[in-house]
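Final paragraph of the annual report: two paired records, presented back to back.
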Amino acid sequence: MDELQKHIRCRPGDVGRYVFIPGDQGRAKRIAERFENMKEIASNRAYVVYTGMLNGVPVSSCATGIGGPSASIAIEELARVGADCFIRVGSCGGRQKNMSIGSVVIAHSAYRGEGTSMAYAPAPFPAVADLDVTNALIRAARESGHEYYTGTVFTRDAYYVQDRELNQRLTDMGVVASEQECSIAFILGSIRRLRVGAILGTDSNIWLDPQPTLAQKEELFKIGEKKTIDIAIEAMRLLISGGENR
């Protein structure tokens, strides 16, 4: 398929097999600045795509925007032009009461509280990250010396709506964070036979009392974001070095 993709504006050859998929355009660029010979390939709507090299292999970074519909379009179109290994590098809200802002979360699964994935798979089907990608992220985090959490995240649609009863129940069940893209990314990984994993930095926590100011949250998140990018880059290097061994 040599067709220009409608939303990401890319063709085969424009992106590498290995792609970072942050939601935020600024984060997509900060990731891409770690590549060798980085170039901006396309910019359309929420989607900004950069391609460069890691370990001598083409890699890309594509901003996916906010939420499941936008992320699903990016992943579908990236896969159509040759990508098959993805690391979501995102932000999230902590859902355990001891989690400070700026914490690192490696998501191995997601509670499907959003709607997009329901168009792809029935509700009982689990949203589970790829084991190889998840293990690479865990190994990279351990070797970096950064503290991190692993667990299930709560993927949801309505950012400004909080169901306190559901939040408490999920916290009691061990859910570590809430965010807006992991479950659809993991579902697409399963049904499109893609390798997809996720690492997130906490930018909030509904259980903190007192709540930090917005300025304090943003400063702490910057530190956490750098950690997530560092770990994601090293994890992708590990995946690349594995070659075709899956």
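The closing record of the year follows.
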Amino acid sequence: MIRIGHSFDLHRLEAGKRLVIGGIDIPFDKGLVAVSDGDVLLHALAESMLGALALGDLGTHFPPSDPASEGLDSSLILKTVYDKIKQTGYDIVNIDTMIYAEKPSLKPYKKSMQAHIARLLQIKTTQVSVKATTMERLGPIGHQEAIAASSTILLKASSHVVKL
């Protein structure tokens, strides 16, 4: 059996905040505002994983009202969600992601993001696609007010599938 999940995440940019995308610190004068570290790419990926298995959304598993979510490292969020995938008996076939940001340029960081995600999920880098695009200076992303990401994931049942 195969299952597919998709998600989109967007966070507002604010001066003086740390910018982390795909688990990689990116030098920039603005960072993402969130309860956790605000990593839109890892949030979209984790939520697409949950969606593929009909396990709810990120806010259900990591409520913003929970003090433990404050400043939480999104790599830990992703790893926790991945453990749920393994427990249900599914394996990752491939992941396709897109980051929407006018600035900074993410080209120098995409390979590092890809490697970080593959390492966390114990898969090959060839199973992870990290792409980035601008919004042609349109809307909140184009005006550098926000950064967003989307993720699609394909899962397949391993030999020991647990019924959902």
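The longest strand covers residues 2-15. This concludes the annual technical report; the extension proposal builds directly on these records.
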